[in-house]
Amino acid sequence: MAEGAVHLFRCRVYYEDTDLAGVVYYANYLKFIERARTEWAREAGIDQGRLRAEQGVVFAARRVEADYLAPARFDDLLEVRTVPEGGSGARLVLVQEVWRESERLFAARVTLVAMDGAGRPRRIPAGMRGGSG
């Protein structure tokens, strides 16, 4: 997926996603953006299971900078927007935001790294880096 291209992923807030106050529990935003990254990779033509089996490459979140801006609530329909920001070799930076209609609820900057089974850096496939590098 080209750098700057926006990927959209929609998800519904279920009862299990909320806390006693009836709002989305803070850690669940990380689950929402993780699901969106999986779909983003899939749509970029990256089969993560096959990549692991054939090349031994797996991905890990190295850093997440997150801002919780407004609460999502039970039954809200959310949209996660993922935009590749850049990266190099074994590192990829994505900007991810969670929206409810026109209201931004959550914003994160996520640094992913590619590595082998022993934790050594590996190059990120070109399709995930916008075809460059």
From TrEMBL:
NCBIfam families: thio_ybgC, YbgC/FadM family acyl-CoA thioesterase. This is 4-hydroxybenzoyl-CoA thioesterase family active site protein. GO terms for molecular function: fatty acyl-CoA hydrolase activity. Transmembrane segments: none annotated. It comes from the Bacteria. The keyword Hydrolase applies. Keywords: Hydrolase. It comes from Rubellimicrobium mesophilum DSM 19309. InterPro entries: 4-hydroxybenzoyl-CoA_TE, HotDog_dom_sf, Thioestr_dom, Tol-Pal_acyl-CoA_thioesterase, YbgC/YbaW. Residues 22-106 form the Thioesterase domain. Belongs to the 4-hydroxybenzoyl-CoA thioesterase family. Pfam families: 4HBT.
